Every structure is written in C-alpha cells, then in structure tokens.
Amino acid sequence: MPPAPFTVALVQDGVAPTKAETLERTVAHIRSAHARGAQVVCLKELFDAPYFCKKLDVERFDLAEPIPGPTVARLSALARELELVLIVPMYERQAAGVYRNSAAVIDADGIVQGVYRKMHIPHDPLFEEKYYFAPGESHDPVQPVGTRGPAGEAGGFMVWKTRYATIGVLICWDQWYPEAARITALLGADILFYPTAIGWHPAEKADWGEAQVSAWRTAQRAHAIANGVFVAAANRTGFEAEAGTDGLEFFGHSFVYDPFGRPLAEAGAAETIVIAECDPRRIEETRRNWPFLRDRRIDAYGPILNRWIGPRAD
After folding, report:
1. How far apart are the C-alpha atoms of 192 and 221, rounded to whole Å?
2. Active-site residues: which are they?
3. For residues 250 and 240, is the Cβ–Cβ distance under 8 A?
4. How far apart are CA 169 and CA 211, in angstroms?
5. Residues in a beta bridge with 117
6. Is the dihedral of CA 80, 84, 90, 94 positive or negative?
7. pLDDT tens across 258-298, in order?
8. Where are the strands (E) in the chain, listed by range?
9. CATH fold of 6-305, please?
10. Helix/strand/coil percent split, the chain, to 5
11. pLDDT grade, residue 166 (50/70/90)?
C-alpha cells in the first residue's frame, strides 16, 4: 500500500514585543494551520525571539532555555491535543556555556522525538552567530533525556520518523550546502524542512534584494530536484530594528517544492501560513525518471572531504 499524502504548514511571521506574546501568537497560528488541514507544522528559525545575532551582547544568552523546557512543554501539549507534528526552532541552553541554534521535533502524540542542532554557523555583518551558537556535533550527537531519538543519523544530520512522514530538519545557513541536503535525503527523509531567518541589509535591498530571494529559492529547488524529495522553508518576515545598526528586513517568501522542483505553495512578504499537500508517490515517480541516487559514483567522491583541492594560491 503506498504511503499516504501528508499536509504541511509553514508559519511565516515576525515576533511580538515579548516572548510570552510571541508564544501565544504562535499557538494561534498553529491552531489556524490545523483548522486548514495541516498535519506537520514548521515554525521559523529562533521562533520565539527577535533575531538577536545582529550584534554582540552577553545578556542575550539569557534568551536560551533547555529542551525539553517550558516552551517545548507547552507546544508538546498542543501537539498532543491537535495530533500534529511540530518543528520548533529555538535557542537551546544545552549546558552552562553551551548554547545551540536548535529545532525540537515533536510527534503527534506530544512526545519530543529529539533535537536537531544547526551544523553550519555563519559569521557575517548583522549575522554574528558564531558568538552565540556552538555548531551541531558531527559525531555521537547527544539527545535530551526522555526523547525517542532520530530514526537515522549520519555526521550530525538526522531524520525523524513521525506519525505522518519521515522528516529531515536543517536550519537556515545549512540550506546553502548540498552535502547537508544529500545526507539527510539519503537517511530516508520524505521532506527537508528549513526553518529560516534570512533577510536584507537595508543598504543592499535596492541592488541585491530580488537577486538574493531568487538565489535562495533556486538553491532549495536544486536540493529538491537533485535528491528527489520535498523541500519546505519557513522564513520570518518584517523589519527588526537594532540600536547601533540599520536593522534587518526579513523577506518571507516561504515555500514548498515537490521532488521535481515544482512549487506547491509560495508566499510573498506578508505574515501568512503556507499550506501544501505532499504525496510521497511523487518521490518514487521522480527518482524512477531521474535516478540520480542510483547513478552516484560513491567510489569517486573522497576528495570532497578536503576543504580545497585546487592549486595553491600564490
């Protein structure tokens, strides 16, 4: 019997003035998505806080909380009530001095499957993430006590077998790396979720804004096509000011692509909930016609483990 289609929702929104208000708004969005038929709901990167990495401030470590913790407990109860799978990206305090950019995966019975921790950490103007986040571990990732754990793991990348689908979760900067998408697809993911916080520096928008959005979407379509999987990205939206900076404008444009790279649903810049039905039979159909996984030369790819293999710079 073929696997059943599943319906995903991406919550594209900004943040309220306080963490508590943001959580309540998010609960309302999740309920709205459920009312529209969603079975798997993905929130934006660092969903319950402003994007605080625009500058260095030691007090912002106080925004982190454990997983499981109060926020995950609240959303676990909601997942159990509505029988939803939730992907909850948030700032995780794993231990004193060890903080992660993470995503909790909660199954439809309310049990936390486990935590994916962002593997690629950027360091750019207004994206000072290396100060705030330790990267995910490439070996023997430690999952929180009491969680089920991933259905598959390789090099820090994971998939989770939930009630409705086998899902892979990667976070924002991870989305530019074909290696991350490939490994997660090879672990058996039906769909790759990318919770995201991507936006424009105000000074760059006029010259680069349209091209940045196009490049971002093109990279994700390529992951869908090259791996024959569904790809979904949930971005935040809205302008976030920051004293001493020009702030950042998060541009939304969340989307879901099918395994052939065709858009199933796309958003503009406004707050919205993106809904799409994903039929796993499309994975089989696409891979039969474009058998990229069959034809991979796994015996020839060793050089990719080097950071550079070209001539030495003079």
Report:
1. 11
2. 45, 118, 172
3. yes
4. 25
5. 102
6. positive
7. 999 999 999 999 999 999 999 999 999 999 999 999 999 99
8. 6-12, 40-42, 85-95, 98-106, 112-117, 152-154, 157-161, 166-169, 191-196, 199-200, 230-235, 237-240, 248-251, 255-257, 263-266, 272-278
9. Nitrilase/N-carbamoyl-D-aminoacid amidohydrolase (3.60.110)
10. 30, 30, 45
11. very high
Token representation of residue 63: 């925004």
- For 19-38, what is each residue's pLDDT tens digit? 999 999 999 999 999 999 99
Mean pLDDT, to the nearest integer, of 222-244?
A: 96
Domain boundaries, the chain: 6-305
pLDDT digits (tens, 9 = 90+) for 122-147: 999 899 999 999 999 988 778 888 88
Q: Of 255, 282, 268, whose CA–CA distance to 42 is shortest?
A: 255
The length of the chain is: 314
Tokens of 291: 């058998």
